[in-house]
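Render this sequence as a predicted structure.
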Amino acid sequence: MSVTAVRRILLVTGLSGAGKSSILRIMEDLGYEVTDNPPLTLLEALVTRSDNPLAIGIDVRTRGFEARAVLDALARLRALAGLHVELLFATAETDILLRRFTATRRRHPLDNSTGAAPGLSASIAQEVALLAPLRAATDLVIDTSDLPPPDLRRLIESRFGRPDDAESLTVTLMSFAYPAGLPREADMVFDARFLRNPHYDGALKAMTGLDEAVRDYVHGDPDYPVFFSRIMDLLRLVLPRFVTEGKKHATIAVGCSGGQHRSVTLVEEIAAALGHSADITHLSDGPIVVMHRELARQGRSAWRWVRPPSPRATPDEQIRIEPS
């Protein structure tokens, strides 16, 4: 079957209050048909009776919910020809979930008690345990704890935008800090910790790889040109094959010790190279987005479209993260 015949199906699950409903609204803006919380027995019927890309919300509100049943349904969908089926898991830190439910005064789906705080905390813990098998099997985990709504939209757009363009590969370039953990969504990871570190230069410590002085310092490492060149050679080999395999999104991650200097510099350099590259097949018009994970967690502006997808979304301010 040709790549263009593949239809995208996204199952969206996760913790209550972590933004699942917000994600589904964004998916609807992107042109997907959206169904929230249908009976699991109807999933195959929903998929087979539509010709459009689908986003389907599944959570503990489903009567008789069991993670095993969801995974079995997912396996059956993936066995159907002509579909590209993914599972997305939305999560957030417990204190963030408590704050969101308190602010909206909504009851947690698993909270049957009359006491607010104790019952809510226990319900969140219970849901974490119930959904653990789904989180372990997911294709993409999105933690909305410190992810502003506009950044959530950009993340969803970068991964799932342009569902009608099957040959388009969206590339996300991400910098990160190793002590904070590897990005789970990364398809390829490069380690920049061997390069000399601007952190130990007093004049550069507070700066980032977005500053010219830091970039010049990193570029001055004698091994930097070879390292960057070999990364680009590998991307020229691998990215076209991702497209051939029917992959719709690729996340290329670069890590260093703090996620502020070396990795940011490299990601910006790779983004510039890909944005002007005419020799990487299928990347001439595909969306490219840059994300600096640790800078975002510090509240800095850390998103940038090198090449945006076709605009079909509503303004960012119409989306807010709240309990489902």
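Summary. Strands lie at 7-14, 33-36, 54-57, 83-91, 140-143, 170-177, 188-191, 249-256, 288-292, 303-307. The longest strand covers residues 83-91.
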